[in-house]
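Aggregate trends can hide what the representation actually does to any particular protein. For completeness, the protein is quoted in full, as a sequence line and a line of structure tokens.
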Amino acid sequence: MSPMRHELSHEAEYQKGVKRLYENGIKHVPRKYILPETDRPNENSRSAKLNVKLPEIDCAQLKGPNRDGVLASLAYACENYGFFQLTNHGIPEEVINHMSDMSKRFFELPFADREKYMLSDMRSPVRYGTSFNQINDDVFCWRDFLKLVCDPQPDVLSHWPRSPIDLKESGVAYAKATKLLFLSLVQAILESLGIRGGDDGILKELENGSQILVMNCYPPCPEPELTVGMLPHSDYGFLTLLLQDEIRGLQIHHQDHWVTVEPVPGSFVVNVGDHLEIFSNGRYKSVLHRVLVNSSNYRISVASLHSLSFTSTIQPSSTLIDESNPRRYKDTDFSSFLEFVKSRDSTKKNFIESRKLYRK
């Protein structure tokens, strides 16, 4: 076989995902996954050894006499971290456990059962893939994922995978629970911004907005120092609720360092997305984060991404704009984001930067 055909043969294998590579007993990270030295996680750096305990927001206290104190803590977390740990959220343990278990079992299916959902259309209601954007990425990440669009439910459910047999039941229960939790969080976030009573109509828009579940699988990697599970990026939507297991991997960029988020059993990691940064006119920050991999353990996470509908436009809240705080962002919509993804490297935080109105 010629070198060119040999390379194309390998490229076709990489398109099938890292779970398949691991199952086939790979001993070294292929060149396709090796990052430039400047982008690799540096185990010898000071920042590589830093762990962070995110600000903790007790959801139950939002309903009690200490609500104002919790709102102040929420504002502090969104301004200074862009992330917080949400405890006492009220979602039943069995709903969370069923979702976690079902996610693991999906990635354990034979490749032939997973492969049928490998679609290139980013608007597809179901998409199984690898890396970050396997169509555009020059270097792949050590990650496989399953994305499920949750709305409108009657239309999308017929497209969801039939295996595992309880995928639809577990996924729907989890999607409904996280959507209700998201909406209660949004009410608190609006109040923390000084927007009361649903001004701007944003709450109603979000009630009818989009939700995507993303199940992530990071198999053990033979040389984790050469690659990452996900490159630095910010999330496109309004808020993301992340369910992670006990394996460390998530890092956020905080005070010029990469710091590892300590897993807290039974909680959600919640982060500000690009849409909330735009809506808050830059007060709340959509922060860069990445995922590291390891050589010994599978890591599974489930992200529930929430925002406006795919046809809506997001813009800074008029309530938060005045002469002393002028508008800082352009209007944006999902089509703009898709064009950006197709034309540029979507693994950098360039999209939110592209929406900023710079003033001297």
